[in-house]
Amino acid sequence: MTEQLSSLAYRLFIDTCRSPVTPMHYSKALRYFMEYLNVPLGDYDKLLPPEKDAKVIQMGICNFVTFLREKGLASAFVTLYIAALEK
Description:
Elements: H1 2-15, H2 22-36, H3 54-70, H4 75-86
Helix pairs in contact: 2-4, 3-4
């Protein structure tokens, strides 16, 4: 059941994109974020487990942004990745 909810959440995440190119970029950004957090691909429930405090999740995203900037990614890519995570 959890796997079904997880795949449903991902499908809704992708299906709500208006441009046909956006799902590709958002999916890549989400995959990259999951790799950064060492979360297995496809295990979307581990991104927002109920026992995690919102501050912990926020710090994970802030650390990811810092990581992206340290890698020298252009600000447009960082903005795109953050947009994907906000969605």
